[in-house]
Design a protein that fits this description.
Helix content: 25-40%
CATH superfamily: Alkaline Phosphatase, subunit A
Strand order of the largest sheet: 5-4-7-1-9-12-2-13
Radius of gyration: 22 Å
CATH architecture: 3-Layer(aba) Sandwich
Strand content: 15-25%
CATH topology: Alkaline Phosphatase, subunit A
Number of strands: 18
Largest sheet: 8 strands, mixed
Number of helices: 13
């Protein structure tokens, strides 16, 4: 094996930053706690966009959604955009993606062809023949669904059939959808041995072993699907946590009085979101009021989904140990974006840039290089993963990548960035917001509107006092807008170097 480090990226999907046993005594995550003990936990990590596809595309490109082209869900990441997987593959790495991809939409049309759509998703003969290369990954084994969604199939469906579950479709929603069939809630009939978290771990282990057999360093992405809703998990994980023990977030009386109308609408009885919606819908543009008992049940199952995933993350870590690979492998754990469990009166996700939605769990382990058992407050963004992986492999960072090399922060707590930018664009001109976060403050602008958000995260960590219209905060707002503009200028790409005067 090469002395260049292996790189193992492990991600979940839509995981709140507090769902680690190391910070929350109500949840059990022994494998992730082990990573914290053997590496560094970063408590100021953020996503570049609080929905799936744009952030996942950012992870592999090192570009913001506004640059790589996959600016929201339902939009394809162009296949000609350079990716870290391709760069590493060209440099001799074995690159693989195991689990969820979601780089392409659930529909296809000329010029925006998609493999991640029906009926292709359930065309198992196609997937038996196709394992990449795709988006820079030499080898892929992917699945699109969350829990029992009808989008199950692809390599995961093949695996279930080959391992003794020919009737796997009975455990998933019908395709085409049958609206008369009640949705499953909380307890999933699928046995744990066929759960996609187990599949993701086993296939990741196989990909690592294949790289070792080839004598190559590996870059493998173990992309877990949970704990993204629906809140559904196999036994016994559905009853692992008692709903009575759950402590959901809540809305503080009066906190939305100074907030933008899109947030106020979420708390109304019959909200009219028509000015904010478009043809394909906008995540979160709905009434968010919830039954407290139901929310606690959902939260208990959400925790169970995290703990089940953690079990199989542990199996991957154990395999690195057994193969003698742990010391020369950079392991990064994170998620694509956060999740609301009642905080600010919100559930799931949407066009809201509270910490619960954009701040994420983030752990790095590299024995002898990254401090063990440390907690680090330097600012991290998922846009930085690709350039940092390039640097770790000893490669030049391409000019198209907009993130920064975080190696100094990972190894010595020397900050590599002093701000975060988070985008959120479901529509070009109607629902388009952007946030700037620094060590203390957060400011959010909404395109074509004069309202906004401004929070002092030191004095108001719960984000209940929006200072946007506070006259006393006028100078602060001006200062932050200036810093915001400077941050925008600083992330310009330089894909092609200048080599002549004209």
């Amino acid at each position: 094996m090469s002395d260049r480090p292996n790189i193992l990226l492990i991600t979940s999907d839509q995981q709140h930053f507090s769902t680690l046993g190391s910070v929350n005594s109500l949840i059990l995550t022994p494998a992730l706690d082990r990573l914290c003990n053997e590496g560094t936990r970063f408590d100021r990590a953020y996503c570049p966009n609080p929905v799936c596809s744009p952030t996942r595309a950012t992870i592999i490109t090192g570009q913001y959604p506004s640059a790589h082209g996959c600016w929201t869900i339902g939009v394809k990441l162009p296949e000609d955009v350079p990716t870290v997987g391709q760069h590493l593959s060209n440099a001799g790495y074995s690159t693989s993606l195991l689990g969820k991809a979601h780089f392409q939409p659930l529909a296809t049309q000329p010029g925006s062809e998609s493999l991640e759509c029906q009926p292709t998703l359930r065309d198992l003969d196609f997937w038996r023949q196709f394992h990449g290369p795709w988006y820079g990954f030499d080898h892929i084994e992917i699945a699109r669904n969350h829990a029992d969604e009808a989008h199950a199939g692809q390599h995961y469906g093949i695996w279930m059939e080959e391992n003794g579950l020919p009737d796997w479709k009975d455990h998933f929603q019908e395709w085409p959808p049958n609206r008369d069939v009640p949705r499953r809630k909380h307890k999933w009939s699928l046995p744990e041995e066929f759960h996609y978290s187990r599949w993701t771990a086993l296939r990741t282990i196989a990909a690592i072993d294949a790289a070792v057999e080839e004598g190559k360093p590996f870059f493998s992405w173990a992309s877990f699907h949970d704990p993204h809703p629906p809140y559904l998990v196999s036994e016994p994980w559905d009853t692992m946590y008692d709903p009575a023990d759950m402590q959901p977030g809540h809305v503080t009386p009066g906190e939305h009085e100074n907030n933008p109308p899109i947030i106020q609408l979420t708390q109304q009885e019959n909200p009219d979101f028509s000015p904010w919606k478009e043809e394909y819908g906008s995540h979160g543009c709905n009434r968010h009021a919830h039954n407290e008992d139901e929310l606690k049940k959902n939260m208990a199952v959400y925790y169970g989904m995290v703990s089940l995933m953690d079990k199989y993350i542990g199996q991957i870590l154990d395999h690195l140990d057994a193969k003698g690979l742990a010391d020369n492998t950079i392991v990064v754990f994170s998620t694509d974006h956060g999740h609301y469990l009642g905080q600010h009166g919100l559930t799931a996700k949407g066009p809201f840039h509270y910490e619960d939605g954009i701040r994420i769990p983030y752990i790095v382990r590299h024995p002898g290089h990254v401090p063990a058992g440390a907690v680090n407050n330097t600012m991290q963004s998922l846009v930085d993963l690709s350039p940092t992986f390039m640097a770790a492999a000893g490669l030049d960072i391409p000019g198209e990548m907009q993130g920064v090399d975080q190696m100094s922060a990972w190894r010595s707590s020397e900050p590599a960035r002093n701000h975060i930018i988070c985008e959120n664009r479901h529509q070009p001109n109607v629902l388009n917001l952007r946030t700037y976060v620094d060590d203390r403050y957060k400011i959010t602008l909404y395109k074509n509107h004069d309202f906004g958000d401004l929070y002092d995260l030191h004095e108001d960590p719960g984000e209940v006092n929006n200072l946007w219209n506070d006259p006393a905060a006028g100078s602060l707002k001006s200062e932050l807008l200036f810093k915001f503009m400077q941050a925008e200028l600083s992330r310009e790409q330089t894909r092609m170097p200048r080599i002549a005067g004209a």
